[in-house]
Design goal:
Structural class: mainly alpha
Shape: globular
Order of helices and strands: HHHHEHEHEEEEHHHHHH
Number of strands: 6
Distance between the termini: 23 Å
Helix content: 55-70%
Oligomer: single chain
Largest sheet: 2 strands, parallel
Strand content: 5-15%
Number of helices: 12
Number of domains: 2
């Protein structure tokens, strides 16, 4: 199997092997990455974390787990602009720095191995964690508890004071959804750093992992435009138009499609 197939097969296990799947994404971008080496590193980390955990029932160890990881150096990558390795799990395990989602994937893997209940939450702009049934969320970057007011404040910092917290922001994230979000993050990071072919690999994975929206087709269309692939760009713009419910965006997409001339021959 190729790295993409290995990645997808990890999601078919029960329970899903989310971190290993993310490591195969790293292999897609760098053939020298060896997932087995990263898993060995994780086993050593598991032993370190276990030594730092207090003697408490498993149901009370979610926050101590995150604090232990923070003590061991796992923190949010504050480098700007953020580089792709902040979302590539082999690098995150080495550097102990990463985006919130990448740190959350490490924490979820350790929680699963140690029998600690913990789940991901697809909070917009900053991935969060939760002890199932708890009245608060947990920040994977250190373990801070976030109650409703904290979540509203976090949302406002990400999207402005007009953003409104709702139940959709607090829904449990499945392993497939987390991998798709990780792929979107990588698509954006590679695009920002002008790694268009790498971003296209991520964009295609986004499409393969589940339901997508107008924004996903538009993001891939923009990559095809930069790579001078007008036929593929047209295909994605047409799908973005079909899926969009924003009148202004629909007008812009229609105009852009009209400006596309006869596609020239190009390699896709």
């Amino acid at each position: 199997m190729n790295p993409r197939q290995r990645c997808l097969s990890c999601l078919q296990r029960s329970p899903a092997a989310l971190l290993e799947a993310a490591l195969w994404i790293a292999v897609e971008h760098d053939g020298s990455v060896t997932p087995a080496d990263s898993l060995d590193r994780l086993l050593h980390l598991q032993q370190q974390v276990r030594n730092l955990l207090p003697v408490l029932p498993l149901g009370e160890l979610a926050q101590p787990l995150l604090r232990a990881l923070n003590t061991l150096g796992f923190q949010q990558d504050e480098y700007h602009p953020i580089r792709p390795h902040a979302a590539l799990l082999d690098s995150v395990l080495k550097r102990r720095r990463g985006q919130p989602l990448a740190l959350a994937i490490v924490a979820l893997e350790l929680a699963q191995r140690l029998g600690i209940p913990l789940e991901g939450v697809n909070f917009p702009g900053h991935f969060l964690l939760r002890l199932p049934g708890a009245d608060h969320l947990l920040d994977p970057c250190g373990g801070r508890r976030l109650y409703a007011k904290d979540c509203r404040d976090l949302l406002a910092r990400q999207y402005g004071d007009s953003a409104t917290l709702n139940g959709d922001h607090l829904i449990r994230a499945t392993p497939t959804q987390m991998l798709q979000r990780l792929s979107r993050n990588l698509r954006q990071l590679h695009t920002t750093h002008d790694h268009d072919l790498a971003a296209l690999v991520d964009a295609e994975r986004v499409m393969q992992l589940g339901p997508v929206g107008s924004a996903d087709y538009l993001a891939r269309a923009n990559l095809y435009q930069r790579l001078n692939c007008p036929q593929a760009e047209r295909f994605d713009l047409q799908h973005a138009l079909l899926l969009s419910d924003d009148p202004l965006q629909r007008l812009q997409l229609t105009e852009r499609l009209g400006l596309l001339g006869t596609p020239s021959a190009s390699l896709h």
